[in-house]
Design brief:
The complex is a heterodimer of chains A (413) and B (234). Chain A has 413 residues and is α+β, with helices and mostly antiparallel strands. In chain A, 48% of the residues lie in helices and 13% in strands. Chain A has a domain at 70-308 and 342-387: Cytochrome-c3 Hydrogenase, chain B (Orthogonal Bundle). Chain A has a three-stranded antiparallel β-sheet. Chain A has a three-stranded antiparallel β-sheet with strand order 8-9-10. A two-stranded antiparallel ribbon of chain A has the order 1-2. Chain A is globular. Chain B has three domains: 22-50, no CATH class; 66-199, Rossmann fold (3-Layer(aba) Sandwich); 204-234, no CATH class. Chain B has helices at residues 22-34, 39-49, 55-64, 76-85, 120-129, 140-145, 174-190, 196-199, 210-213, and strands spanning 108-112, 135-139, 165-167. In chain B, 36% of the residues lie in helices and 6% in strands. Classes of the chains: A alpha+beta (413), B mainly alpha (234). The A-B interface holds A 1, 3, 9-10, 36-37, 39, 43-44, 64-70, 72-73, 84-85, 88, 91-92, 135, 138-139, 150-152, 154-155, 157-158, 171-173, 408-409, 412 and B 71-76, 78-80, 82-83, 86-88, 101, 103, 113-114, 116-119, 121-122, 126, 148-149, 151-154, 170-171, 173, 232-233.
Chain lengths: 413, 234
């Protein structure tokens, strides 16, 4: 199968370079290919491992198996049609993808987002963070052989997705965040439903911790495994729970608050050693903090518009179309061409469940972005995989990959 | 219960002592085991108890009620595929929960997500490694029609492998996937056992080596995928 005119598939395979390992004449190495079809690689990650017996001496991740051309496709769509495209990038944290892109475009437009929309964004983002961490817990538990965590994790995640369905009509890829605010106001009963969830969820977290924290097998497999120090991670650009597990409290919600995160009282959980156990504990503690943020945001949810009243950016309300000619013109312009964005470039970082998710947008003044680039945390964090798993057993490689929590859709884009 | 209302009424029926009565069936079974039944009674005994079918139908009944999907996730849809196994939809109620990590043990490939051009040969190889009879579900818009992306990087599943069922949605709900699996079950139950080449008119497109084609008159339309490089790959 010819992929490009001058290189075929087999030649492409041969072009993968493995690092040279100095070894004596009596050592024997085995190169083992894992993936892209491997149940424990969380998607279609492919790992070329060099083993000495059971010990991993070298690992090379090969990516690109779900390359979707998202960044290039974005250049071909009007700004508000880009949102569903970027949402499908990191498919566990769709609200964050949309948030990063909308935030970047809003910065370019110099657009003020109404406080109610900011709070609604916070509520949905934090619910999404819990859902994403629950999938990490469910699949990570599965990789460690803990089947029951899978069922419980999925039970709670489905409850969050019911809330998303209530506010936007979709379970995943909701396209709820809109440039200038959110798509529509939350329906009646949504607040009660969220409160029902947040009041019960800490108990569920206790149950998870009872299941896992007292399990000797899990503890032995996580504690003091794959510890990497803070400086190495910082040198590789790693952010998110992996970095916080080493004790560095870098979290963009505190470091550079966006979307009214400075209104809320919450803590940034950090670890001490930076091993797999700390990574697990940091994420579990983050879910508790997210619950606190959601409850505070519901308590202080301001009244007011849910989207900017700038008619050049946001669609006019449906009832205005019947009476106002101007609204009809705005509607027509937005739906056919979209809104134009003044020329410039912007980088807008937010804290996704996996770390710093940044969106770079360059505008040339037209209704379509000239360039959209995402700094995806999974992609950067995957670089730390080799220092983590070097000289570990191959069984620990699987556990470490689960605790790294890469999402291949975000890596390959 | 309210008089005249639409309610449930429990009627205690008299026990009928027909030949189909359980006790008499039990007694005749004991008699048969003791060898006490004669020609006429023995014929009646066999006719009452044996259900005839074809072996094919019986095999399809078993296959259709117990797919073993390959554990193979690509993108967003894979999450909803896992949600189908999860506690709410719980596909284990229908008997399709036994996901198999090896394609050799699987008979259903759920293509759950977008297929990049780099991934397509891998998926085709996994499908080819599965043993007949095998089925494939293209889950979601991407694997059916490239979905919202529709760009240079993706390829729909039909372009490189036979697909039995397409499930719309982006991503489809887990219920939709469960419905699709049940639709596929109906297809398997109602059709005689056929491999995919028969189902989709693909006879004569087997991939063979040049050395095998020579002298074989039946393989006239077979495609030698390896050109003249005999022995590479396969």
């Amino acid at each position: 199968m010819a992929l490009t005119p001058d290189i075929d598939y087999r030649e492409m395979e041969r072009s993968v370079e493995l690092s040279e390992i100095q070894h004596g004449p009596e050592d024997e190495f085995l190169t083992l290919n894992m993936g892209p079809h491997h149940p424990a690689t969380h998607g279609v990650l492919r790992l070329l491992t060099t083993l000495e017996g059971e010990v991993v001496r070298d690992v090379k991740p090969i990516i690109g198996y779900v390359h979707t051309g998202i960044e290039k496709t974005c250049e071909d769509k009007a700004y508000w049609k880009v949102i569903p495209i970027v949402e499908r990038m990191d498919y566990l944290s769709y609200y964050f993808n949309a948030h990063a892109f909308c935030g970047a475009v809003e910065t370019l437009l110099d657009l003020e987002v109404p406080p109610r929309a900011q709070y609604l964004r916070v509520i949905h983002s934090e619910l999404n963070r819990i859902a994403s961490h629950l999938i990490w817990l469910a699949t990570g538990g599965l990789d460690l052989g803990a089947m029951s965590v899978f069922w419980y994790g999925w039970r709670d995640r489905d409850q969050i997705l019911d809330l998303f369905e209530m506010s936007s009509g979709q379970r995943m890829h909701t396209r709820y965040f809109q440039v200038g605010g959110v798509m529509e106001d939350i329906p009646p009963g949504f607040e009660d439903a969220v409160r029902r969830f947040t009041s019960g969820f800490p108990t569920r977290l206790d149950q998870f911790e009872d299941l896992i924290d007292k399990n000797e097998i899990v503890l032995q497999r996580l504690r003091n495994v794959a510890a990497v120090d803070e400086q190495t991670l910082l040198g590789l650009g790693v952010t998110g729970p992996l970095l916080r597990a080493t004790g560095n409290p870098f979290d963009l919600r505190k470091a550079a608050p966006y979307s009214s995160y400075d209104h809320f009282d919450f803590k940034i959980p950090v670890g001490t050693v930076g091993d797999n156990y700390d990574r697990y504990r940091v994420r579990m503690a983050e879910m508790r903090e997210s619950v606190k943020i959601i409850e505070q945001a519901l308590d202080g949810l301001p009244e007011g518009p849910y989207i900017t009243d700038n008619r050049k950016i946001a669609l006019p309300p449906r009832h205005e179309l019947a009476t106002s000619m101007e609204a009809l013109i705005h509607h027509f312009k937005l739906v056919t061409e979209g809104f134009r964005v003044p020329p410039g470039e912007v980088y807008y970082p937010i804290e996704s469940p996996r770390g710093e998710l940044g969106c770079f947008v360059r505008s040339d003044g037209s209704a379509k972005p000239a360039r959209v680039h995402m700094r995806d945390p999974s992609f950067v964090n995957l670089q730390a995989f080799k220092p983590m798993v070097q000289d570990l057993y191959i069984a620990d490689l699987i556990a470490t990959l689960a605790m790294l929590d890469p999402i291949l859709g975000g890596i390959d884009r | 219960m309210e008089a005249g209302g639409l309610g449930m009424e429990i009627v205690r029926r008299e026990k009928v002592s027909a030949p189909s009565d359980f006790r008499s069936r039990q007694l005749s079974a004991q008699a048969m085991l003791r060898g006490e039944l004669d020609d006429e009674e023995l014929n009646q005994y066999v006719e009452e108890r044996v259900l005839t079918t074809t072996l094919e139908k019986a095999a399809n009944w078993a296959r259709g009620n117990a797919f073993m999907p390959a554990t193979f996730g690509l993108a967003c849809c894979a999450i909803e595929m896992m949600a189908m196994v999860g506690s709410r939809v719980d596909i284990a109620r229908f008997g399709f929960e036994a996901f198999r990590a090896s394609p050799r043990q699987a008979d259903l490939l759920i293509i759950s997500g977008r297929i990049s051009i780099k991934m397509a040969p891998v998926i085709r190889r996994i499908y080819d490694q599965m043993l007949e009879p095998k089925w494939a579900i293209a889950m979601g818009a991407c694997s059916s029609s490239m979905g919202v992306f529709n760009n240079y990087a993706l390829v729909p599943a039909d372009k490189f492998m036979p697909v039995d069922l397409h499930i719309p949605g982006c991503p489809p709900r887990p219920e939709a996937l469960a419905y699709g699996v049940l639709k596929l079950r109906n297809k398997v139950l109602s059709h005689p056992d056929q491999d995919w080449r028969t189902r989709y008119g693909g006879r004569g497109t087997e991939e063979v080596l040049q050395s095998e084609v020579e002298g074989d008159t039946n393989a006239g339309h077979a495609i030698n995928v390896f050109g003249d490089q005999v022995g590479q790959g396969a």
